[in-house]
């Protein structure tokens, strides 16, 4: 939930426009407050506190979530006198493009964004037949310290605000809408939280963003909850919290090993919540939401790709029921200097075959952007959503 909005004291109001100046103040490290941090009622409260009718906030929301713009010049239904001040107060610039790379004949666009405090995050937009997917970041860096992941080596700098997350989605949607991605206007259909950061470690901001993504237009983008994927390396209490939200997003568990002995090394948070506890929580998520859970499994040569581990994974999943889970093995795209590399195709095929024979639905994920150093600091940035090979 976003922070409650309180009316600014009279002295702090700009006398010309009566907008609360606190909304433009920049706190060090913390992103300026933005429309996308607020619920519909909170946005209206801001408009009223600024001496404007509540419906002005709705008009601004429509420009942002439907027309995908924060440009005051485009908001011709708003009086010119209040346009700039309203956008300044509720749509401050949050991200600035630093660098954009394309790959896969233009079907993959990776962008590095600079935030208000000069920190940077990445997002990757990918076109597939029938859908467009953006992979977004939820934190600057990551505190989970997974040793195979470039982002994990950075440590955590800070959490993103809900609006900083939403801005990555708006800009991706605009890139689809203006025809840049596919050569003709198209729609952003899928959002995956698999960029930099552990989404469930920044729970409130991520949930605020999920609400903006799934709220019907013009309150939000109106993206189907089933088309939003929230990943986790295994913060068990937050998985249960997510299940109780009543927004049935798809949960993706980055498992990478079916046994604690190996997973303790690959995913340090496994020392807190073991494989069994994590899979139990994933099963509860399925029972509560009815959404089949995705198990992400990066295939790392000679580390976790043995046939016996595929069988153990199948046994652990089947022990908790049938038809509740889908496994996505992912060929590792190693980060520079990494001692790990991808499994061979033959080993990958055996791994998949073992799972399939055990009755586990399995799809090897497409990799994207490998020729543009496609790593979004981590595995999943290259990998996501679809593309059976
Ligand atoms: S793999 Fe994910 S959770 Fe682990 S360090 Fe990288 S970004 Fe964080």
In summary, what is this structure?
The protein is α/β, with parallel strands linked by helices and 389 residues long. The chain is built from eleven helices and twelve strands.
Secondary structure elements and pairings:
Elements: H1 40-49, H2 55-66, H3 80-90, E1 95-103, E2 108-115, E3 120-128, E4 131-135, E5 139-141, H4 150-154, E6 156-159, H5 162-177, E7 190-193, H6 203-214, E8 228-232, H7 236-243, E9 250-254, H8 260-266, H9 275-289, E10 293-299, H10 307-318, E11 325-331, H11 345-357, E12 361-362
Parallel strand pairs: 4-7, 7-8, 8-9, 9-10, 10-11, 11-12
Antiparallel strand pairs: 1-2, 2-3, 3-4, 5-6
Helix pairs in contact: 1-2, 5-6, 7-9, 10-11
The site of iron/sulfur cluster has 12 residues, from helix 4.
**Strands side by side in the biggest sheet:** 1-2-3-4-7-8-9-10-11-12
Strand residue percentage? 15-25%
Average pLDDT figure: 86
Instruction: Tell me the major beta sheet.
Output: 10 strands, mixed
Secondary structure: helix percent: 25-40%
The CATH level-2 architecture of the largest domain is identified as Alpha-Beta Barrel
Count of β-strands: 12
Question: Under the CATH scheme, which class of the largest domain?
Answer: Alpha Beta
User: What is the rounded Rg?
Assistant: 22 Å
Could you state the order of secondary-structure elements as H and E?
HHHEEEEEHEHEHEHEHHEHEHE
